[in-house]
Design goal:
The protein is an alpha/beta fold. The protein is 26% helix and 27% strand. The protein is built from eleven helices and 18 strands. The two termini are 21 Å apart.
Length: 361
């Protein structure tokens, strides 16, 4: 039977979010209904509220979530009722050219639930990243549910559903950081600090956090940065070179999404080094680089979408590392709240006061 529950909805562009009655259908073929236990407040949700992703209002916000599978539809074999899962927004198809070439993290045909959740009056909702998790129950494609060890608290497990995995994967998957590397991370918010944590896991020996906010630089130290650079006070390119024997970093992660910061990252890498863009640019932004510099410096310029993660591979591994005490996911949780606190959490995020606010449901 359909379930009615209260959810956080963005009804119109730029308006504060509101709690609305949401109707969640019974799962159909290939679908699962999940009882949400916790959901992080991510910048992407704010982009939806501001109309920065699409104009398909109203949006059901929330996507960085973990919970318990409540029921499944016909044909579902990936998960069963009672499983503890992290939700992901890239359920791979297994059939496209990327999947068939053994690169499912690049899947070109990811999918979501077929049925739509609605407002009480029948208005269809657009779920953020195909999830919509700021509510008690949500409907997703079964492939969006990744089963993990239930010993992990939902409050930290859900963070892997988006921002933290994006940063970890930027370092581990896209950047290929390995032992002995020098790594620089530009932008030490949630994603950037996750990249720092990933560099620590990989065995990087020099890890440099770059930001303009002293609070974020302190967070970077806490996650394992060996050095920090305040780019308000000094040239970050020269600082990174000075800390790497004059050469630059082997891997540079740009976690801001600004052309001027990307240029700094480009010139802060060693010859044949790798730049990984994981910050999300706005549509109107343009990047200019001397074409000869792109050629002569060699190496690789990569974009990392969702940390090039494969949820079925990476989520259980990261949870195991957390349970072993090797990945401090709990450090990302700055504060917790309930569904009525989402709007204020957006404001705190805009002011740079939090790494992650987590909504407990």
């Amino acid at each position: 039977m359909p379930i009615e529950t209260k959810g956080v909805v963005a009804l119109a562009k730029g308006r504060p979010v509101s709690l609305e009655t949401v109707v969640v259908p019974e799962p159909g073929p290939g679908e699962a209904r999940v009882e949400i236990q916790a959901c992080g407040v991510c910048h992407t949700d704010l982009h939806y509220r501001e109309g920065g992703i699409s104009d398909d209002f109203p949006f059901l916000l929330g996507h960085e979530a973990a919970g318990i599978v409540e029921s499944v539809g016909p044909g579902v074999t990936e998960v069963a009722p009672g499983d503890f899962v992290i939700l992901n927004w890239r359920a791979v198809c297994g059939q496209c050219r990327a999947c068939r070439r053994g690169r499912p993290w690049y899947c070109f045909n990811t999918h979501n639930a077929k049925q739509q959740m609605t407002l009480a009056d029948g208005t269809p909702l657009s779920p953020a990243l195909g999830i919509g998790a700021f509510l008690k129950h949500t409907l997703v494609a079964a492939g969006q549910c990744t089963k993990v060890d239930p010993s992990a608290p939902a409050m930290v497990a859900g963070l892997l559903g988006c921002g933290v995995m994006a940063g970890l994967g930027a370092a581990l998957n896209t950047g290929g950081v390995t032992r002995g590397d020098a790594v620089a991370v530009f932008g030490c918010g949630g994603v950037g600090n996750a990249a720092i944590a990933g560099a620590v896991l990989a065995g990087a020996t020099t890890i440099i956090g770059v930001d303009i906010d002293v609070r974020k630089l302190a967070w970077a130290r806490d996650f394992g940065a060996t050095h920090v650079v305040n780019s308000r006070e000094s040239d970050p390119v020269e600082a990174v070179r000075a800390l790497t024997g004059g050469f630059g970093a082997d891997v540079v992660v740009e976690a801001v999404g600004l052309p001027e910061v990307y240029k700094q990252a480009f010139y802060a890498r060693d010859l044949a080094g790798t730049v990984v863009l994981t910050g999300v640019p706005r549509p109107e932004m343009q990047l200019e680089l001397p074409f000869l510099d792109v050629f002569s410096r060699g190496g690789a310029l990569k974009s990392s979408w969702y940390g090039d993660c494969l949820p079925t591979r990476d989520f259980p591994t990261m949870i195991d590392l957390y349970l072993q005490g090797r990945l401090p996911l709990e450090k990302f949780v700055t504060e917790t709240g309930d569904l009525g606190d989402v709007e204020e959490a957006f404001h705190k995020m805009e002011r740079g006061e939090v790494l992650r606010s987590v909504i407990l449901i």
